[in-house]
Specification:
This protein has 8 helices and 4 strands. With 262 residues, the protein is mainly alpha-helical. It has one domain. The strands form 2 sheets. Strands 1-4 form a two-stranded antiparallel sheet. Strands 2-3 form a two-stranded antiparallel ribbon. The model is unreliable at 1-9 (pLDDT under 50).
């Protein structure tokens, strides 16, 4: 297809795809983005309390938005199964990880995020739920398949790329502590091997297919943009901002290129 035609067609295709989203999904997307943009303001005026409130609201709204998207594509029972499976497996992985050091390395959560079960904040499994389905959408776009080894590997890579932003930021905020800091801006390399393993395992167990790729890819892309700006401009972490921008951004660019070609 002629490249000039693709460039002319893209804005109209994007507009059509956005209009194809259900109204609840569009509303949730807007509310989530506004909440995330407001986080530096909340921290500036209300300090740690505002920061924690913004984190809880942002994670909760993004997770709910993802669930809305899955529900409109899959229906109730499959969405419930996926949400319960992802959050349950993520909590179990984090509980084992923080207790034994496997698969991430030796770390523990502080008492800042509450409530906690077995010393794991309940917000953490929701964070997995809010980002793993978007990572699946990236994998589906890049591999062209809905299951199989390539899909699993790229899903794990897309999920782990997000942690290039996340871990340095959360450690700086004191939400969790590594017993042997080092490697990547104070984060041990074993953490990223653990993310790859855990993401792949959950993907294998849940076996996602027929994903609503466009809205989930949109969430992945917005997260990439917000994280880049936040770490570079507001949180004083230019190194993770740059590497996360390149790592997660390369997947974003390739995925949107495939989206445009279809």
């Amino acid at each position: 297809m002629d490249s000039q035609y693709l460039l002319m067609k893209k804005p109209f295709e994007l507009s059509r795809l956005l209009q194809g989203l259900s109204r609840p999904v569009r509303v949730m997307l807007v509310v989530w983005v506004v909440t995330m943009i407001s986080l530096p303001i909340l921290r500036y005026f209300w300090g740690g309390m505002g920061e924690r409130g913004g984190i809880v609201a942002g994670v909760g709204l993004q997770a709910v938005t993802v669930v809305f998207i899955l529900y409109h594509a899959w229906g109730l029972w499959r969405t419930v199964w996926t949400a319960v499976s992802v959050t349950g497996l993520a909590w179990g992985t984090e509980a084992i990880g923080s207790s034994t050091g496997f698969p991430f390395g030796a770390y523990h959560y502080t008492d800042i995020l509450q409530p906690q079960v077995m010393h794991v904040p309940l917000l953490i499994p929701l964070a997995w739920l809010m980002m793993l389905p978007p990572a699946w959408a990236v994998a589906e776009r890049l591999t062209g398949v809905k299951r199989g080894l390539a899909f699993i590997v790229v899903s794990a890579l897309a999920m782990t790329a997000w942690d290039l932003f996340l871990d340095p930021q959360m450690v700086t905020w004191g939400l969790w502590v590594w017993e042997n800091p080092g490697g990547y801006f104070g984060i041990p390399w074993s953490n990223y091997l653990g993310w790859l393993l855990a993401s792949a395992l959950i993907t294998v167990i849940v076996r996602p297919s027929r994903l609503p790729a466009f809205p989930l890819l949109l969430i992945y892309t917005i997260t990439w943009g917000l994280e880049t700006i936040a770490l570079f401009v507001f949180w004083g972490l230019p190194g993770p901002a740059l590497i996360g921008f390149l790592g997660m951004g390369s997947l974003v660019g390739l995925a949107w290129l495939r989206q445009r070609e279809e």
